[in-house]
Amino acid sequence: MSSHSEYVFYQLENIKDVDIPKTFEEIFKFPEGELSFQQDIKSTFHYRYFANYLFYDDNGLKIKTIVVEKNYTCLTFLEDYINYYAHCYTKYEKSCRRIHLFYENFDKTTFQNMLCSESEEQYSKFWESYSGCIVIKPLPTGIIGVTYLKTYKGDEKRNRYYTAISSQKINLYGTSRKIDTMPFIEQDRRVSSCASAALWMAFQKTSEIFHTRKTSPSEITLLAGFDSNNTGKIFPSKGLAIDQICKAIYNNGLHSELRSEAIYNNGLHSELRSEAIYNNGLHSELRSEAIYNNGLHSELRSGKKIIDRSLLQGFVYAYLKAEIPILLGIEIESSGGGSHLITLNGYRFKFDNEKITQKNDYKSQLISKFYAHDDQTGPFSRLKFNKENSEYFLRTSWWKKNVDWNKSLQEIKEYFKEENNYYNCKPTCLIVPLDRKIKVSYEEIIDKVKIIKYLFFTLLLDSNFIWDIFLIKSNTYKEQIKKQVTHKDNLHKLLCESLPQYIWVVQAYPYECQKEPTFDFIFDSVEMPYDGKPFLTNIYSESFKNCLPFVDTEIQDLFSKDIEKNTEESVVNTAYEIFTRDRDRQQIEDKTVNDLNDVMKGIISNIIQTVEWKNGRK
Fold first, then answer.
1. Bridge partners of 3?
2. What is the per-residue burial (b if ≥16 Cβ within 10 Å, else e) of 320-331?
3. pLDDT at 540 (0 to 100)
4. Interatomic CA distance for residues 395 and 119, integer angstroms
5. How far apart are alpha carbons 150 and 378 in whole angstroms?
6. Fewer Cβ atoms within 10 A, N terminus or C terminus of the chain?
7. How far apart are CA 35 and CA 578, in angstroms?
8. Beta bridge mates, 259
9. SS (H, E, C) 558-570
10. What's the pLDDT tens digit per position in 549-570?
11. pTM value?
């Protein structure tokens, strides 16, 4: 370590392994005597998480050089200071410290030359190793301020996809660096709770894609308004209820797509358009038992939990694909029912590329992990799907036991790798902040897919597909499809097609090969037509075209209950009506379900015979 009047310089390679924990504690705190209170960092999850992410984890950032900026004015903290801390009797400081991280090793003299050099090329190796920064706030708790860190290394090789990140510009003493990340912040339990922190992190991305405001944590707490009792007391914040979260989203110019497990425990489904949500510029679809108990509109459902494993994977994947961050409410096991809110920003597919079986109907079912900004641990915290089919089926990054920092380097690494050392959790709610023009929900799309998959492609053509369902910007979709499609004959027409800004895409891939889609359906994100037809249908496989010469019109017509051109379409539409009617009511008993399945098998058999006869005639 070497000191300068404006910064402190650390070369971790010059520090013994046994002294690394003590060094990290020193880096993450203000020096003794600079504040009128003691800072607590070593007992928190953040201390362990950052130590592992920055140093111990072999897939982490592997930081070798650290520069601590002594006096840094953080505008986000300054807004919180004005809203709350300036009114307190305790003398809180306004200046923060900022930790800068590099994965290359260099000395203090080299760093001084890097700053003063007119050209970055001479020191490009060192500047390119810049991995981000962490702001330390002058508070007794909740000290982790605005943080920008790079993601894990080797993302492409390990099938990691961080979709809700963006380019962030950081200036270090006159030199600007850019990294792709999602800003992170910790709640301070005064002006912000975990919900305020999660919203702040989500709003950093929505400000880019939906052009909404970037607000400070204290401003978000103010946007959420009073609690349900209208006490009028906002600070210090004790947490936000779901309606307050949705209200904050609305007041920031968006609407909320909300799913909650509690509603489905009684087999009920409710849709709520509350005034509080609307006043925030958002709309919400709320599944809540409380809504039903208040006499609000509800539709009887089958009683299936809304947030089971498969639905969670599909729902999250569909919106993350559009680069939209998702707020996930979780309940940690052994927490006594307490809830916590985190911000999902990425996912990872199975690394071993296991052979797809018939059980995996959707690409999203291949997701093995989510990545989230958890303000109680750190950025890009892992949420792993457990193999056990239990209620708490997600493994968090919350540790069950403390680490003994006096152990060897290898023993500390093993502590972080130990699977049973982390608490499990279950999801309790999902909230997606959306542009108000995006109105069609994930469930509306997957309902269409289930009908098509069941009636036509899987059974009628005796072909098995894996389905990829996601929301995406139409321009981004065109950019991606150009790279995926081998046969470019019909690509020009698709690229020149006028499409809505956001579209729902349903792509079908053969089980044997998922590199190129066989066909896809495109739905508008604003409305679902009464006849259920997709906005556009595209077929990319020449062999599939040869098998179905009239597939473009037939696929579209199969969504309609009004068109009956021939015997096979008439049979299909009859099946569609039966299936849709009974699915929406969901009041059929087991016997009726069995009867319906028998009817469907008979209909499919008739369809296959009709098609075989038609193909033989041709």
1. 8
2. bbbbbbbbbbbb
3. 84
4. 46
5. 12
6. C
7. 71
8. 430
9. CCCCCCCCCHHHH
10. 444 454 445 434 333 343 344 4
11. 0.82
